[in-house]
Structure formats: structure tokens, C-alpha cells
Design goal:
The complex is a heterodimer of chains A (313) and B (237). By secondary structure, chain A is mainly alpha-helical. Helix content of chain A is 68%, strand content 3%. Chain A has eleven helices and four strands. Chain A is globular and about 60 Å long. The chains are: A mainly alpha (313), B alpha/beta (237).
């Protein structure tokens, strides 16, 4: 039972990270129907933003008080990147065929990885990420279950971010404008909504959560490198599709489900019968996880929470 | 009456196909002006160009002495032009109240609450269903919502595209009566209608469009009694 609970905790931790990143895919998709494959890099740059802030502005202090400033640094870096990316890479292609921005996104992704590798000091290899007091250090023990402090930070960060995002989308005028644009962009313009501005807001929102995720990743893994955006981005994109792309709640649920499934699969596939256990354990976890994704999409193509439905009268 | 809206030699193209081929007309302050014509005559295209969703190939659009044919759609709303589009286009997954508030998106004044009440007074059914998702509504209710939503921007010019489309005769009557009410309250209205009888009867002026051109114009009553109009649009021999 402890083992199961432990994997559940691991899964929720992993899933919270996926969820934080997945929101960025889904929000942007909901507004412009673009899969922004460079979003994983926005997350990576968030992590580097936090590290840079810590190294160059905070004098490498590990006191808990530097954490908020690191988060601000991460969010500034990720949001700045996302807004510039939207302005110069995607906006000129607004009316181009959909394949053009998609290919561009892949190009932007490579560009950002290489830019960090070349220009961030020492980024050619792994860089240690500061281990901040309180949020890292000795793990908590709950019965037989170990809960890392950074894991707790990640889960709490997700809860706070998801709550704030929900309030923004459902309780503010700008959020209502976003909902309108995602349902019917032309009619939204007739309401006096500046669609270009809403698109920037969508990119920025996703980037803020990705920046926070960057900090969480650094704290959890204690090091970062310029390649972390690729797999995390791929998994987060999967989570967004699993939850129903375009649906914000779906991205959160999809992230958590994906994380938990991944953790449980890693643990329990080694007990599979009929010799299938050869395909068990952590090295096969992605295979099982993606097999599950395919199954879900075969039977529920709109994702777990349902996606945009065109129900215009 | 001074011209609130003036269209000069407007041409609009979809790719290489010219949908509006040089039309001109004016809408005076306080008037109801209607555009009638068959499908493909260019009525909807004209409205979409005025509200800035489409860009003209050539020609000019003037609103209150300002040239607006290069102004962004969301800014045209702030100038005082509201467009209730063809097919109503309410936001189905938002509530009635959210739809109405979106109509006031361009405003920052303190009068929005009052105007919300005014929209509810105009169509009391909207008040009853304020918290329901708009997608569950019947066509007539959606049309009321679309009109209420358009009024929320406090427009000087209200453009209605086929407000009676697909409605029961009773509901159509209700919508058309509202058009008159709004005019009496001082709103200028540019109306596009298939139902020429109801529309012309309420209009100060009418323009008949055929394949992108104005072929006939006159007062509402003149057109209502014009032989060609009676044959083509009122189904009389």
C-alpha cells in the first residue's frame, strides 16, 4: 500500500509539472488553433531565467526570501520570450496556411535551444540549480511515504496558478474576451475586442505558468540544461491532448492523469503476466504511457474533458 | 438630416471575385435604412465591410465625418457602430449576461449596469434566463440576445443582418416591432432583410441590391409599391 501511495505521490508531482506546462499549449491552441511546439523552450528559458536571476542578481543566496524573486525572474524571462515569439514569428503568419506557423514553431524551438546553449554562460553542459532553503532539503515522511519538499512546492504552485488562472478567465473582462475569441473570433471583433491583444495575453498566460514550472523543475532535479524543454514539452502537449486541447481544466486534469499513469506504469508493469514483464519498468514507461494516450484518443478523440465544440446556431 | 454613414463607390472582393461592385448609399441620422436583395447580392458583405471585418478593394466609408474603411474592427465599435451579424452568432457557451456584457467590451464608463437593465427591459425573457448558456436558446431568443448585445455598446448606428431569418411569424413581428422601438429611442438602423415587406414598411429609405450593385432606391413606401420590387421580392405577379 505504501508503495502504491508513494507512486501516487510521485505521479501527482510529475503530473503537476506537466499540467503547469500543458496549460500553455491549450490556452494558445484555444485562441489561435496553433500547437506552439516552442512552448517547451519557454519552460526551459523560465528555468534559466530563475538561475540567471539567482546567479547575477541575488548573490547566490539560498535563503527562502530569494525564491519569490527567482520566480519573478523566471516568469519575466519566459513571458518575454513568448511575447516576442508571438510578435515576430507567429503574427506575420496569422493568415498563412496552418502548416506554416507549425513549422515555424519547430524552428523557433531549435532556435531557442541553440540560443541558450551558445549564449548562457556554461550552458553547454548541465548547470546546478540552487537548492533554496525550506523548498528543498530533508524530505517529509508520512507513514512510509516520502514527500520531497520540491514536490510539495510543485503541487502547491499548480494549485495556486490554476486557481488564479480560473479567476482570470471567468471573473475578469479580459478573461471573458478570451472566451469570446476562442468561441468565435470574428464576432469577438464585432464586440470591440482587439484579437491581437487577446492572443498576446494567451501566450503570456501560458508562459507565466511555464516559468513557474521551470523553477519547480530546477528545484526537483537540482540541475537544468538547455534540452529540458523538449521532453517536458512533448509530455505536456500529450497531457493537453489527453485532457482535450483548448480546455484549460482539461490540461490540468490531463497533466495529473498522465503523471500518475506514468508513475504507476513504471512501478507495476514489471508484474505483467505472459512474459510482458520484459516490457516493464522505467525504461518502457513512455511506451505504455503513449499507448494509453492512443487508446484514449481512439475511444474519446476530443480528450477526457472534451474540447472545443462547434455548436454555433 | 445629416448623413451618419456614407458609402462611396464601395468595391469588395473575395480573392478575385468581386462581391460588391461599386455601391454608394447614405444613412441619415435617426433613419431606418434597409438593404434588400436576393442571396449573393452583397448585402452581408457590405455590412461586414462597414464594421471592418472585411477590407474594401476600393471606395470609401465615412462615419460621422471620419473615414473608417482602414480602421480596425474593434475600434469601429468604439466609434459607435454595432453589428448584429447574420446567423446571430451569439457565444453559445457563455451565459446570456456574459454575452450582453461582451457587447459593452469597448466601454469603460459607469453606465454598463444601467444598459444591462435596459437590454433586459427591452427583452424581459433575457432577464429570466440571465445565467443560462446562450447556446440552449431558440432562434428567436438568440436573435433578441444578439440585438441586446449589439445595443450594449451604445451604438449610434445599429446594423442588423437578417434579424428575422428562420423565425416564426410571431417572433418576426416581435423583432420588427423592436426595430421601430429602437428607432424611436434615437438609434439609427441599417437593416438587411429577406423579408422585404416587413422591412420596407418600417424604413425611411431602401436600396435594392442585385449581384453587387444598387439597382433601385427610394423611400420605403415607394419601393413597397414599385412593380419590380413587388414581383421580385414580395412574391406578387
Amino acid at each position: 500500500m505504501d508503495l502504491f501511495m508513494q507512486q501516487l505521490v510521485n505521479g501527482v508531482t510529475l503530473g503537476s509539472l506537466y499540467a503547469l506546462i500543458a496549460v500553455g499549449y491549450t490556452v494558445v491552441y484555444g485562441i489561435v488553433q496553433l500547437i506552439n511546439f516552442a512552448h517547451g523552450e519557454v519552460f526551459m528559458i523560465g528555468a534559466f531565467g530563475a538561475l540567471g536571476t539567482w546567479s547575477y542578481l541575488l548573490g547566490e543566496s539560498t535563503s527562502i526570501w530569494v525564491l519569490p524573486i527567482m520566480i519573478i525572474g523566471a516568469v519575466a524571462a519566459s513571458t518575454g520570450t513568448a511575447v516576442i515569439m508571438e510578435r515576430f514569428a507567429y503574427r506575420p503568419l496569422r493568415h498563412a496556411p496552418r502548416l506554416a506557423p507549425l513549422i515555424t514553431a519547430i524552428g523557433v524551438s531549435v532556435f531557442l535551444q541553440e540560443a541558450v546553449r551558445l549564449f548562457y554562460p556554461g550552458a553547454k553542459s548541465k548547470l546546478p540549480f540552487p537548492q533554496i532553503d525550506v523548498v528543498t532539503g530533508p524530505a517529509f515522511k508520512l507513514g512510509g511515504v516520502v514527500i520531497q519538499r520540491a514536490a510539495l512546492f510543485t503541487v502547491i504552485a499548480l494549485v495556486i496558478c490554476a486557481l488564479l488562472l480560473w479567476l482570470f478567465v471567468n471573473r475578469t473582462k479580459l478573461g471573458r474576451g478570451m472566451l469570446a475569441v476562442s468561441q468565435d473570433p470574428d464576432t469577438a471583433r464585432l464586440m470591440g475586442i482587439n484579437v491581437d491583444r487577446i492572443i498576446v495575453v494567451a501566450f503570456a498566460l501560458g508562459a507565466i505558468l511555464a516559468g513557474v514550472a521551470g523553477v519547480a523543475q530546477g528545484l526537483q532535479n537540482s540541475n537544468i540544461d538547455f534540452r529540458i524543454g523538449f521532453l517536458a514539452g512533448l509530455k505536456a502537449f500529450t497531457a493537453a491532448v489527453l485532457g482535450g486541447i483548448g480546455n484549460i481544466e482539461g490540461a490540468v486534469v490531463g497533466g495529473l492523469v498522465l503523471g500518475v499513469v506514468e508513475a504507476l506504469v513504471t512501478q507495476y508493469t514489471q508484474y505483467l503476466p505472459f512474459g510482458l514483464s520484459a516490457f516493464g519498468g522505467s525504461s518502457w514507461k513512455d511506451v505504455w504511457t503513449f499507448a494509453l494516450l492512443i487508446l484514449v484518443l481512439v475511444f474519446r478523440p476530443q480528450g477526457l474533458m472534451g474540447a472545443r465544440v462547434v455548436d454555433r446556431a | 438630416m445629416s448623413a451618419l454613414l456614407e458609402i462611396k463607390d464601395l468595391e469588395v472582393a473575395y480573392g478575385k471575385i468581386l462581391a460588391v461592385k461599386g455601391i454608394s448609399f447614405t444613412v441619415g441620422e435617426g433613419e431606418v435604412v434597409c438593404l434588400i436583395g436576393t442571396n449573393g447580392a452583397g448585402k452581408t458583405t457590405t455590412l461586414r465591410t462597414i464594421s471592418g471585418l472585411l477590407r474594401p478593394k476600393s471606395g470609401e466609408i465615412w462615419f460621422q465625418g471620419t473615414r473608417i474603411d482602414k480602421v480596425a474592427a474593434h475600434e469601429i465599435v468604439s466609434l459607435g457602430v454595432a453589428h448584429s451579424p447574420e446567423g446571430r452568432r451569439i457565444f453559445p457557451r457563455l451565459t446570456v449576461e456574459e454575452n450582453l456584457l461582451l457587447g459593452a467590451f469597448s466601454r469603460n464608463d459607469g453606465g454598463i449596469k444601467n444598459d444591462l437593465e435596459a437590454a433586459y427591459d427591452l427583452f424581459p425573457i433575457l432577464r429570466e434566463r440571465a445565467k443560462q448558456p446562450a447556446g440552449t436558446f431558440s432562434g428567436g431568443e438568440q436573435q433578441m440576445l444578439a440585438m441586446g448585445r449589439a445595443m450594449m455598446s451604445r451604438p449610434k448606428l445599429l446594423m442588423l443582418d437578417e434579424p428575422s431569418m428562420g423565425l416564426s411569424p410571431l417572433m418576426m413581428q416581435r423583432i420588427m416591432t423592436t426595430v421601430t422601438t429602437l428607432q424611436q429611442q434615437g438609434t439609427t438602423i441599417l437593416l438587411v432583410e429577406q423579408n422585404a415587406q416587413a422591412a420596407l414598411g418600417r424604413s425611411n429609405k431602401g436600396y435594392v441590391l442585385e449581384v453587387g450593385k444598387v439597382v433601385l432606391s427610394g423611400s420605403g413606401q415607394e419601393l413597397l409599391h414599385d412593380d419590380k420590387v413587388r414581383k421580385a421580392y414580395l412574391g406578387e405577379d
